[in-house]
Amino acid sequence: MLHILWLALKFIGILLAAALALLLLAAALVLFCPLAYRVKVQKDAQWQVWGKASWLFGLVSVTVCKEPSGIQKAIRICGVRVSSWKKLFRRKRRPRKKAASAEDAPEKKEFRENAKAAEASGKEKESFSSEEPVGKETSGISPEESAHKETLPKETKKEPSASQAVDAPPRESLIRRLWTRITEKCRGIRDAFLGFINAVRSACKKISLWKTFLGDTRTGAAMQLTWAQAIRLLRHAGPQKCKGHVNLGFDDPAATGQALAALGAAYPLHRGRIAVNPVWDRAVLEGEVFVKGRVFGIILLHMAGILYFDKDVKYAVNWFRGQES
Length: 325
Prior knowledge:
With 325 residues, this protein is α+β, with helices and mostly antiparallel strands. Among the domains are: 173-215; 216-324, no CATH class. Helix content is 63%, strand content 19%. It is built from twelve helices and eight strands. It has helices spanning 2-32, 82-103, 105-130, 136-139, 143-151, 162-167, 174-215, 217-237, 253-265, 267-270, 297-308, 311-324; strands at residues 35-43, 47-55, 60-67, 70-77, 80-81, 241-249, 274-279, 284-295. Strands 5-4-3-2-1-8-6-7 form an eight-stranded mixed beta sheet. The chain is extended. Mean pLDDT is 79; it is low at 128-140, 147-158 and 162-166.
């Protein structure tokens, strides 16, 4: 007996260990396997955009392509499209459906024969009922009753008598109607003025609350930490490789110079890997740019943990929740 109990506990322990190992493997894949992306933008006569995101070293990938004909999407698992996987499973189920339909064939034939017999009997009943004499409903009324109904006088509308006209309420005078209109307009103006005053007071209260909130040291620390983590995220998830060439030009040469100055200010992002060829005599925008990067889940989890456990960030979040409620 103890031996059987020991074997059962051993089997349960093996199952739990296997489930735990699978969970740890899935967590490791999510956290340490990067999500890679590639984007290619091309502009000649029309815009063409191609993007691809892959995970597990390309085993799972999503491709989106925008062309003049439209947007095309494709999801692949192990290099095979999801639609192909669905077709494989559907082909296995088709023989079962055919076998079931072959078994139900004699039952369907019997049902059709019974339906035809019921229709034939219904037609016979209808033909028999059509031969019956018509006028049973009118036969119940005698000619004397119909003549008596015709001789009855029609009801006439009663006109109000003089006493009823005297009892009707008198109409309001012109002065009273003008007075009621003036009082209603004055009340409307008063209500609008009071609503405006209340709106100004509530706006002043909100402004004072925001001033105190933004002037607090804890709010400043939370904003600094959030900004630092956002810059860290951009550096991590930003493009690791980029290359391409662009022909850029405007109708006004001054505008072309300003665009080149802006691209020069963004040099730390592209680091001269995108060659910009200025065109001074006409407006043009054409070229090709390729961008590649990756994102690790462990880095995102680390940044989220820093923001979640920070006291200053919690204070700012609770303040916002109090304002919304």
